[in-house]
Amino acid sequence: MFDKALKIVTVLKYNGFDAYYVGGCVRDMIMNIESSDVDIATNARPNDIGKLFKNVKHVGKSFGVTLVDGIEVATFRTEKCYGLSDKNVEVKYADTIVDDLSRRDFSMNAIAYDPIAGVFVDPFNGYEDITSKVIRFVGKPEDRIYEDPCRILRALRFASVLNFYFEYYTEKALIKYSYMVHLIPKERVRIELLKALKGDTINGFFGYSQHFNVLKYIFPSLNDTYDVEQNKHHDETIFDHCVMCGNNLPKDKPLLRLAGVLHDVGKIYTKRYNEKIGDFQFLGHELVSADVARKELEVLTFSTDEITYVVNLIKMHMRIVNNLSPHGIRRLVAKCVKYNVDIDDFIALKGADAQANLKKKNNYIPGHDKVLRKRIDDVMTKDAAFSVRDLKINGNDLMRHLNMNTGPKIGKILNGLFEKVLEKPELNDFGTLMSLVKEVI
What we know:
Structural class: alpha+beta
Largest sheet: 7 strands, mixed
Distance between the termini: 65 Å
Number of strands: 13
Strand order of the largest sheet: 3-4-5-2-1-8-9
Strand content: 5-15%
């Protein structure tokens, strides 16, 4: 990627234009982080770029953005905002890189690098802010936020992912204008959320979101759990438990992390005091959590498949996995098959949930997930059935051999046979199943 970018910069400069690397790739370079992409800014206009290169695609001509060999090359520009809409932004080409950097969000993202001369252009002291781990808006914070309220979420994400902190006036602005988050298109909130979930830790993002009164616009249910105590089985609040659970899951599976973050939000709605045991209970909270998560993820424009994945994991998270008999393991796997839940993701969520219980954290045994996985593998023989589809008999067999018509009775018989096979896998034989039909009618 950087080899292509260097060639593009070389061609532009050879033909009399200015050209620089800009944005996140420069920030990553300063932080010694490997960057996955690179953006280029130049004073060449889109038509000039089209004449100099072959593999060119104008993807944002009104904003002066061109793709060259898959790399974004943008013409220097300034932006003036007259309202909270793309239609209310006046874009003009600029003459210098400093003009272009002046429109960017944070000082750490407003640095340009000339790879030919090996020098930085840093008009807002971004290099120093990066080395000091400071997030600072370029210019007036309120102007940057008004231009694009999504910069509030970007600030929280950067603070979490990079482990940076906020400069004084930046923090004041984030608090003052946090209400503007509700103006951000929901699909952009989803994108920022998923990026935050891919960070090394997610505690900062959700902690800052709550602190700056932003979380109520993303996940109202999670916001409601803040500072809510649980019961004698927990030393942590519901909020802390949910965030810790998500944080304990792998960063390369953001949706699994999201399931962890939302798995207990239903506790706030099901918390009841039981006088007999002298403590609070959260009966059925997994189903309420799943229902609440579905509604909130729909608002955030997550896809049907994404929502189903998260919701089904939440529904299943209370299933017991310790000391299961072979029959219990088969029933567990069957439930995962029914909900289309990856068994490894389920096991990971159970482990993360256990680790997030500060009262019982010491009871969590490292490597328990591998032990459980091996037990499951031992039980999952090639002849075992984990859904009705795995039976050695089907509805057509029943109709043909028993002279039955299609209808709900067929399904009832198959489900009955499946229950027997779950108990004893050796029964999964065509002849044996046919002989058992009378017992389940």
